[in-house]
Amino acid sequence: MSAENKNKVWFITGASRGFGLIWATAALERGDHVAVTARDTASLTHLTEKFGEAVLPLKLDITDRDATFAAVNQAKQHFGRLDIVLNNAGYGHQGTVEEASEDEVRAQMETNYFGALWVTQAALPLFRAQGAGHLLAVSSVLGVFSIPTFGIYSASKYALEGLFDALNQEVKGFGINVTLIEPAGYATDFGNPSSAKYSAQNPAYSAVRESLAAMAIGYAYGDPAATASAILKLVDSQNPPLRLGLGETAVPDMTATSQGKITTWEAWRDVSAAAQG
Q: Does residue 51 or residue 194 have the better pLDDT?
């Protein structure tokens, strides 16, 4: 590894499990320094025990904007700079659009969208002052297309995609890179009660759920540990992409969706053009 790739300083939200833990560990194992956040810092103890002062554990609920700004600034003061800020914290809400309650929808957006927005807003002034930095956010292939019972989750990721698309155009002139990470299905703890929420089921949608379950039979979930090398390559790149799919099915599935949209737009091109007046 070249000298320029050593000793990066990271800020990773939701680092107590799943992708956040895997990527924080990979960074620490190669000698980087990482500020790791979780709602309960006790869940981060194993990292501090193993990596010592290279780790800064921070208690954080990313839905609290003031606390988020304070945590990002604390990490910068502690390490002297931040090179990589990775929005990983989030969860998946499952339920049909009709089933989702107002509280459930707002909670999903507060974490997956607003939480990432607060972290991003806190990091930008620091990155602008440095003239460099890399902002990343974990989106999903379900931020590019959706499937039944994941509409609310997808909406939060679609919003994140739009936010970072605009952000990328706004901050290029400051030397800041922006990347959306779009994983396909992985064998993480996405479905456990602390990482997923479920709406009360309406029997009217039983057939929809049965169809989705049938689609999932035989699906080959990826190994989360296999993503670590991809993320390290991403943050070490001199010209990182705005979007990076993760997993064997990610690019084919997102490409098929995009091609389907193009086909529809082309089929209705004359109607669209005639609406110009």
A: 51
Inter-helix orientation angle 18-29/228-236, to 10° = 60
User: Which residues are part of the catalytic machinery?
Assistant: 139, 153, 157
User: Does some domain include residue 202?
Assistant: yes
DSSP per-residue string spanning 99-115: T--HHHHHHHHIIIIII
Q: Which residue has the tokens 């706004």?
A: 170
Would 257 be classed as within a structural domain?
A: no
What's 39's domain CATH number?
A: 3.40.50.720
Domain total of the chain: 1
What range defines the domain where residue 46 resides?
A: 3-250
What pLDDT is attached to residue 111? 97
Structure confidence by residue, pLDDT tens digits, 183-214: 999 988 665 555 689 999 999 999 999 999 99
d(CA 193, CA 191): 7
The 10s digit of each residue's pLDDT in 83-92 is 999 999 999 9
